[in-house]
Amino acid sequence: YNGTSELQLERMSVYFNEGAGNKYVPRAVLVDLEPGTMDAVRAGPFGQLFRPDNFVFGQSGAGNNWAKGHYTEGAELVDNVLDVVRREAEGCDCLQGFQITHSLGGGTGAGMGTLLISKIREEFPDRMMATFSVMPSPKVSDTVVEPYNATLSVHQLVENSDETFCIDNEALYDI
């Protein structure tokens, strides 16, 4: 932490664990059904910020298929993810809830993301669940199944999320 605000320093534990030498480690779990994205994050400028055990990934991917993310490939990986989530939750002094950031256009974020949300809801029913859900846009992707993936996900979000912030994928390109 390089800031000067005492208030910010007091609140660092909301999103970070303090490591050795006043280094702060994000209390985050990064998940994908294929290793490529995780490899890119680890090799990037922020890759060393995260705990290496908090990268959870499969080998096959979901191929933009909601059902593969929710029922097959994602279902095989979700228990590993929940183990990491549990470990992070146990490290909290006062767990308030969870924040999930995911895309609703593909198979992993939409299918496995909603599976994970429902499993976390089962295990932590009295904790807040907030999602930051990136909605697909035909102007930035030509994957024809994105609207279907998003539609299948919305029902799960209504059932298992306390608040969902819908983010327009097209608008993200204007930032």
TrEMBL record:
Q: Which residues form a coiled coil?
A: none
Give GO cellular component annotations, separated by semicolons. microtubule
- Keyword terms of this UniProt record: Cytoplasm, Cytoskeleton, GTP-binding, Microtubule, Nucleotide-binding
The record ties this protein, via SMART domains, to: Tubulin
Residue ranges of the Tubulin/FtsZ GTPase domain?
12-175
| InterPro entries on file | Beta_tubulin, Tubulin, Tubulin/FtsZ_GTPase_sf, Tubulin_CS, Tubulin_FtsZ_GTPase
Q: Where in the cell is it found?
A: Cytoplasm, Cytoskeleton
Q: Pfam families from the entry?
A: Tubulin
Can you state the subunit structure given in the record?
Dimer of alpha and beta chains. A typical microtubule is a hollow water-filled tube with an outer diameter of 25 nm and an inner diameter of 15 nM. Alpha-beta heterodimers associate head-to-tail to form protofilaments running lengthwise along the microtubule wall with the beta-tubulin subunit facing the microtubule plus end conferring a structural polarity. Microtubules usually have 13 protofilaments but different protofilament numbers can be found in some organisms and specialized cells.
Name listed for the protein in its UniProt record = Tubulin beta chain
Q: Which organism is it from?
A: Rosellinia megalosperma
